[in-house]
Amino acid sequence: MEITDKFEINKTGKLMDFSIDHKEIPIKLSPDLDEAIKMLLWYVPNITSEQAKVNPLLLNPEYDDYIFKDIMASMKLGDRDVLFTEDIRENLANKFRGKLSVDEQKLVMTLADNSETKTMALLRHIRNAIAHGNFNVINDLVIGFDIKRYGERTEYRAVFKINPTNLLKALRKINIDLTTEEFIAKAFRKSGYRVEPFQEEFQRTHRFDLYAKKDEKRFAIEIRNYDFEKKLREDFIKEMIGKISGMDTRLRPILIINSSYLTEKSKNDLIKNEVIILDIKNIKKMQKGRDMVAEILREQEIYKNSR
């Protein structure tokens, strides 16, 4: 699953006439689409709803492509089905009107700015189209338009033709599986670790986020979510070292963070206290099954023996 420039629309296969106007009022919705709409309007993360929770992972540009490709897989979208563009022209939008192929899904989107992630753009566009009634259902596909009108001119911000059952699968994944902890745990599992919530004396605690074990090595994992426009607080290192104090000596602490948010002094202080620092780049490699923790430990051992 990739995000490429291979997008294409075929006027082949089974063709059906499409109109944005709802023939029945209110429109009849399948159970999956009904649930998907409710989730989009009220429950997906990071939206302006009292029912929505904040999920920093979906806002993090560092993980953006990895998360969105996972969502593409849930929605059964390939690289020929998805297009990100700065401008959606009328002639492209018109390919989603009139006689349509109902054998394929397609998704065309703009991003609000350089900081918006693809996942949040997807949620925003589909939510806007549905909230404003700019959608209809044909042959088990939801076809919609996220638009902005300026008098007689229409600006197209997204157009989509998607399967509601696949959309619901993606929304459930977003709400349940795509949390920061689950994403990190998945990376460690792919590298051969057993991962579970961190416990002390057989009780879940918040001293660390996760516990990981591989062979005889055990680790306490701290995941640092941060404001992407700010540096870490100066007292963070003291807090981290304080967490280690009195910890089970069989455990090795791991800090997962964007290393650019650490000063050289901070890095050295952590390393002196036996903290393994994993950058986001390391996590991406672990998502592919490469054990970066073992590689770092080997490098540290070689360095110690060479002194």
UniProtKB/TrEMBL annotation:
Pfam families named in the record: Mrr_cat (PF04471)
InterPro entries given in the database record: Restrct_endonuc-II-like, Restrct_endonuc_IV_Mrr
GO molecular function: DNA binding; endonuclease activity
SUPFAM superfamilies: Restriction endonuclease-like
Residue ranges of domain Restriction endonuclease type IV Mrr in the record: 181-286
Superkingdom, natural source: Bacteria
GO biological process: one example: DNA restriction-modification system
Protein name: Restriction endonuclease type IV Mrr domain-containing protein
Organism: Anaerococcus prevotii (strain ATCC 9321 / DSM 20548 / JCM 6508 / NCTC 11806 / PC1) (Peptostreptococcus prevotii)
